[in-house]
Amino acid sequence: MISQFFILSQRGDKIVFRDYRGDVPKGSTEIFFRKVKFWKEDGEEEAPPIFNVDGVNYFHVKVVGLLFVATTRANVSPSLILELLQRIARIIKDYLGILSEESLRKNFVLVYELLDEVIDFGYVQTTSTEVLKSYVFNEPIVVDAARFPALGPASIFMQGTKRMPGTAVTKSVVANEPGGRKREEIFIDIIEKISVTFSSSVGLWDKRFGPVITISTKKLRGCLCLPFPLAMLIQISMPILPLQGYILTSEIDGTIQMKSYLSGNPEIRLALNEDVTIGRSGSSAYGYSSAGSGPVILDDCNFHESVHLDTFDLDRTLSLVPPDGEFPVMNYRMTQEFKPPFRINALIEEAGALKAEVILKIRAEFPSSATANTILVQMPVPSYTTRVSFELEPGAVGQTTDFKEANKRLEWSLKKIVGGAEHTLRAKLTFSQESHGNLTKEAGPVSMNFTIPMYNVSRLQVKYLQIAKKSKAYNPYRWVRYVTQANSYVARI
Amino acid sequence: MAPPAHQTQRSPSPSQPSGRSEVSDLKLQLRQLAGSRAPGADDSKRELFKKVISYMTIGIDVSSVFSEMVMCSATSDIVLKKMCYLYVGNYAKNNPDLALLTINFLQRDCKDQDPMIRGLALRSLCSLRVANLVEYLVGPLGSGLKDGSAYVRMVAAVGVLKLYHISASTCIDADFPAMLKHLMLNDRDTQVVANCLSALREIWSSEASLSEEASKELDGLLSKPLIYYLLNRIREFSEWAQCLVLELVAKYVPSDSNEIFDIMNLLEDRLQHANSAVVLATIKLFMQLTLSMTDVHQQVYERIKAPLITLVSTGSPEQSYAVLSHLHLLVMRAPMLFSSDYKHFYCHYNEPSYVKKLKLEMLTAVANENNTYEIVTELCEYVANVDIPIARESIRAVGKIALQQYDVNAIVDRLLQFLEMEKDYVTAETLVLVKDLLRKYPQWSHDCIAVVGNISSKNVHEPKAKAALIWMLGEYAQDMVDAPYILESFIENWEEEDSAEVRLHLLTATMKCFFRRPPETQKALGAALAAGIADFHQDVHDRALFYYRLLQHNISTAERVVNPPKQAVSVFADTQSSEIKDRIFDEFNSLSVLYQKPSFMFTDKEHRGPFAFSDERGNLSIGVESADNVVPAQRVEANDKDLLLSTSEKEESGTTVNNGAAYSAPLYDAASAPLVALDTQPVAQALQAGLAIDDLLGLNLTTPAASAPAPPPLKLNAKAALDPGTFQQKWRQLSISMSQEFSVSPQGVAALTTPQTLLRHMQGHSIHCIASGGQAPNFKYFFFAQKAEDTSTFLVECIINTSSCKVQMKIKADDQSASQAFSDLFQFALSKFGMP
């Protein structure tokens, strides 16, 4: 059970505040905000989402820069409270269309109305958007969608592609379209966040962890990258191995997200690839067997409450009566090998006294039909770097570079990269002191952020989307969209 | 970003000038609108109400418009009504007189045709939190519980709980708990059922200490029929209510293994739920159910691994942190079950440090012969990380792995490579680790010393690192050519050395160096002793003086004292006792797991949740966290191991080898730990106990005088039998029915020279001992007894302190109603001990 719920702005202003049980002293919002703001004196560490001050437990989640907070004195289930906070944020977004400080301020009475029904005396009553509909009477005041980044992964569809009706993503579940009629439509988004770590240089080792020979990339420049595991190389005991690029770890965390604006909640059938299998037979994760073909093997997955799996084993079909609003139909996790969309080559080497050169090369290894956007490549450089001069490739368009003095980091951003393309950045560093010798230990790793719409790496697909028909004329819009995003995409140097 | 000072300026204060003028303005406008029935009046009211609520939110006191708000609330506009209810709920508590104004219209609304209005009004009525208005609640609540609309019943069920918190007696007198119970068992709507369950749980657990009936009812919530009734409907419940049910079922004790498997089969698909709260509640249930079935328990671990990892990687960072903390707990309990999943615990560069720290600990725990190379390689990458705290943690992790592995060859190489990185913080952390490594693996000294000798002492600034370096200089003085001279340079800077720890080490190291290389060190030793004796720090002063006198007395004795042959340390002490860990495990799926502390350490009793394990066994080891107390804690823990109570056989037992090195924690009297516990007892009890010392019979004064001389009437089975496994299971599952502290006669204590003497005596009274242990002055026993007429058993934990003549006793019983009788019998038996 929770005692209080409140939403604070980034500056710590109370936007909504509701006390349910009256057993937490006044001033809890200030205590909370101060604690979060000044968690450690050096400000380097972030406050954990749950902490205890004077016997009061504070829970918070950050959504679009807003802090959703609950307090309690009881020893409750932490996951329950955090799930609830996240759910409240989603319900509010379902209602307001857009979750932002402005939309909240304009609609705070509606939010109070929702909160009244969601929680009573600290106990959760309902979080179902359609149940809430019958209890909630305020009409949302819609704020201008274009000016605000929308909540959640679906917002990425706003950026590049013109194929999607932009407003739909930010449509409220209750507000009517101009003209009084609601458009019947349903969105299925397959969102995959990928984490890849590429190794740096290649080392040799004997079985008893004997002397480890580390070969720096410096000596091996110019060789090609090797996409197969190191273990094989060791068996054939090659004395010196080519540089960079084998995959240390890779994982896909996917979600099939649904947002339904169908009236009358008809039943839906969602068919996935027939070759999807769940659960690896062996206990060993990260096997590198087949790449690019063969069945899609998910390590594990979970489903939304409303999903029926009666025929899933038979034909890989999920049937459900979708509730209103946005919700994840299925979450899945996959460590099966896949082709990373980008290859990163990074190099740092000394170039005279107090100088070094960095070469960053990225190659898009996905089909040219797809285009990645909002790419950002970052690389920490030695702490004694004072100046950096960049050299972009000739004719570069939509690329910017920056040296972040405060945290000694190179930043290279690219508006878009078409599949198959390759881009290079050279940077000259000037140091304030001699380096200690091993520059690679002082710089890196290179990390990368990107979004690739209409492309997914797991090959999991929605084969068809069937909506139980009410009449012959009933043919709602169906949108199935794919997107790949970087979660932790790192290359060591 | 605005500093928080900005906040305090806007802190709630009725006298705030800007707020006041605006509020009085509002008041005026509201008054004008109050009686207006003009078209559009409702819209203007809405705007004004919004303003009032928004002031209320940011903390401006708008209670002065109370009467105007109430006047305006006579409306059919439901949005207005809701705003008004919200307002009234917020201010009624502090303005009881004004709250009276609202009763009328709320009561009227409670009879409205629209169930929604009825529900809303009832909710607001119960939220007023005004004690002298409770009489107005009883009627509407009573009819609310019988309302035809599930919404109203749902509100009414929570309303009863609200009433209970305002006035418990009114709630009980109106017989609402019984009505809730009826509703819980019969209502079609699952949310009504869930609310009844929440309310009853809270009401009965807080009544349980006062009334026997309530505590029976509380136990009744765990009865088989109710549990099955809830389980069979579990899919109809909302995901939140499912958590509630699962939490309840986790306390249920199935009668046999078939029942356990039935429940697990029924709930297995809950592990595939997208809501992490449901999954964790299910896991907790599975864990509790299989606690005494080792094989199945292990299968449960295997089964829950994948869902947990999925939740960690798919949720928001906050959610995944909460799940990861639970995964962390499981990994720590059974590291080898997760040793093949180590890659899931690799850190992502963009994760917050609270997540990285957990992952580093998990990586350390799961390292074994097969994965150590990969794990250490990965950790070494983090050492070069820009995030300095994580770099430090990573070095420590490498060190810990080295300390727990047999084959440390390569790891030592890595550590030595760190020293070559020439980053101050890396060097500092590494030195501390190399020192620990040398204490465990003296055979590595040759390689390490060669590298350590190259470190310039000028680059070492942190006290811990300095102390480590100095220790090595002293310990390996014969292998390090420059040792006396480096020590000498440290001694020259004695005045600038702020850390007493470093100065203490410097004294000892110089002494050791002196015994090995007297001519080179003599001068330095003289200077060190002189500086030490002049030191303002008491410990430093004393140690210097002690060494000085020791040397004066006899040099070879001094050498034996300061530099005796050492045994290598086999295992370093664990800082948390396994008892604490078990308690945290018992409180799975709660904040205890996140804070890594059992609930009694951070929550007051009333908030621990009605089903928390309420025994205070943890008192024994309250002070365990601080490293200084490690020795006594270990001893207590070792005792508990004898007593079969620890379930964590899988963990390495944390036995300390006291190697006599200067680093070992000071040896405390074993009594010090329980003394802490005694201090926490309420004064009243201590007082009673003090009086009781005078009582020759040693009987507790709380015992009714009449029953004192004769043995109480309860008949026990003289040949009762209980195997340790069953005892352990029961002890975990039953809650404490009685906890007492009393005194024993000095004669009794005098006879208690060894634990065994008491056992025979108690057996004579049909109370059997299942385990005992401890050393004077603290003895700990676990007894059990069985009723003669049926098989219901009593379990007793009894701690006797022979120096204070006090006994702490906790009774758990199948039949809780008989615990008082049993307690009398037990105390009677104990009082006879040592009597001729």
UniProtKB/TrEMBL annotation, chain A:
Taxonomy, superkingdom: Eukaryota
Keyword Membrane listed: yes
Which SUPFAM superfamilies does the entry mention? Answer: Second domain of Mu2 adaptin subunit (ap50) of ap2 adaptor (SSF49447), SNARE-like (SSF64356)
| One Pfam entry name | Clat_adaptor_s
Residue ranges of every copy of the MHD domain listed in the record: 225-492
**What keywords are assigned to this protein?**
Membrane, Protein transport, Transport
Question: Which chain positions lie within coiled-coil regions?
Answer: none
Instruction: Specify where it is mainly localized.
Output: membrane
Query: Which Gene Ontology cellular component terms are annotated?
Result: clathrin adaptor complex; endomembrane system
Q: Where does the UniProt annotation locate this protein?
A: Endomembrane system
One biological process term from GO is: intracellular protein transport
Q: What family name appears in the similarity comment?
A: Belongs to the adaptor complexes medium subunit family.
- Protein name, per record: MHD domain-containing protein
Automatic annotation (TrEMBL), chain B:
Listed under GO cellular component are: clathrin adaptor complex; endomembrane system
A Pfam family reported for this protein in Swiss-Prot or TrEMBL? Adaptin_N
Superkingdom of the organism of origin = Eukaryota
Region Disordered, annotated ranges: 1-24
Annotated Low complexity bias: 9-21
Q: Which GO terms describe its biological process?
A: intracellular protein transport; vesicle-mediated transport
| One term of GO molecular function | clathrin binding
Q: What is its main location?
A: membrane
Which stretches make up the Beta-adaptin appendage C-terminal subdomain domain? 714-831
Q: Which UniProt keywords apply?
A: Membrane, Protein transport, Transport
Which compartments is it annotated to reside in?
A: Endomembrane system
Q: What does this protein do?
A: Subunit of clathrin-associated adaptor protein complex that plays a role in protein sorting in the late-Golgi/trans-Golgi network (TGN) and/or endosomes. The AP complexes mediate both the recruitment of clathrin to membranes and the recognition of sorting signals within the cytosolic tails of transmembrane cargo molecules.
**Member of which family?**
Belongs to the adaptor complexes large subunit family.
What does the subunit section of this Swiss-Prot or TrEMBL entry state? Adaptor protein complexes are heterotetramers composed of two large adaptins (beta-type subunit and alpha-type or delta-type or epsilon-type or gamma-type subunit), a medium adaptin (mu-type subunit) and a small adaptin (sigma-type subunit).
- Protein name stated in the entry: Beta-adaptin-like protein
Naturally occurring in which organism (per UniProt): Carnegiea gigantea
